[in-house]
Amino acid sequence: MSDVTASMFVRSDLVGERAAPVRTGGLTGFLRTRLFNSPGNVLLTLVGALLIWFTVVPSVKFLLIDAVWHGSDRTACLDQTAGYPAGACWPFIAAKFDQLLYGLYPQPEGWRVKLTFLLAVILLVPLLIPRLPSKGLNAGLFFVAFPVVAFFLLRGGGLGGFAVSWTASLLSGFAGGFENAGAALVRAAGTVAVIGPLLWLVGKLIVLIGMVLSIVVWPLTWLREQMQAWGQPVWGDVAVTALAVSALAFWLGGGVRTGWRVLISSLVTFVGIALVIAVMGLDRGGLPIVDTQLWGGLLVTLVISITGIVASLPIGIALALGRRSTIPLIRLFCIGFIEFWRGVPLITVLFFATYMLPLFLPGNFSVNGLVRALIGTALFAGAYLAEVVRGGLQGVPRGQIEAAEALGLSWWKTTFLIVLPQALRYVIPGIVNSFIGLFKDTSLVSIVALFDLLGSLRAAFADPNWSTPTTLFTGFAFAGIVYFVFCFGMSRYSLFVENRLNAHRRN
To answer: pTM value?
Structure first.
């Protein structure tokens, strides 16, 4: 009985060899599992291959293989000279490179633009590498010191004074404005019968405010006059400002017990400011002034995009927090601001900022055309970023806020130490997407007489010395490559930051 049972369950011959497993690694495995694993994927692979064949291959042939690389005028890019159907005319880009870089900026002063770009790269690259130390100092130099240095490098000019002189001039202007407005109301009171006494009273009150402000600002005005009489207003102003700010920082930092570190940091900062003033000769008039109307090319594109990106993020955060505020006035203002700016196209904002804003300003007050475009772009981008940030704020669990309140944290600490870091981490893709869109939208400023990269490129096309059948395609291909490099760089770095911040959430 046992022999029969054993014969039923025990195999008496060898099992045949199994087929080799399907290879899933390497090129063969990739083709088998990703491109040809189903009839639908086979069809998509063939369509994609045809698209590459009819688009990428001709583009590479035009830009690289059949391209003309050397020449001094249009004849080098003609088919007769090249001996074959000529592709991209890269000598045109080489000849117009300075114009594409900084527009009509005087060529002898072009080194100032290149130096500005170099300083930006030197300060930005260490800021983007997480492992490098001194991020606080690096961020301060890039976001605070670099814009000031870049302004005097690009525009030129010098300093007529420093903080004391600027404050005295600003407050004196306010005082004079109050007195003039009050005097106007007093004069108007005599022509109105019903509310004349009320206008007279309000006018006298405004005049009194102006007089009090004039008395308050008198010491600063006297000090400014003394420094101007000394003959070195800039250095005297820097010295007085350094002493006042350092003393205040020392007192707020804890005085003799704990304020020495703050005092040393303040003095070192002012020494650095003095060195910059001396090296750039800002006390002697500085570099020759180059009006912003002469700026153009990649310079204007980067100035508008970087300023818009840096300025729009805090604006968007403030609007997003204001829209969630429990104070009705703040909430309604933020909602109205966001919906208004999101309801009009950017080109309308640029037209309004460029041509209509001066109509609302006093007659003796003017704003530079480039500054108007910067203000309009920052406000427009800030409204869009507000909704992106608000989405991140809604993604933070309510329990996080309740836990912070249970620990006794104030609203400010809860918001900036707990809520915002998590919210901004959630919406990194949306923020970078807005930045990339803003960078590309800077091309619209050419409509308001600002020559960005595309505007300078169109101006370069008007040169008859480089009029060839391929010049137009070469120029737009170069501009497309520039835009792609910047946008792709922002996209890849955002992915790096996102993966690094979310490393603790991986399974």
So the answer is: 0.81
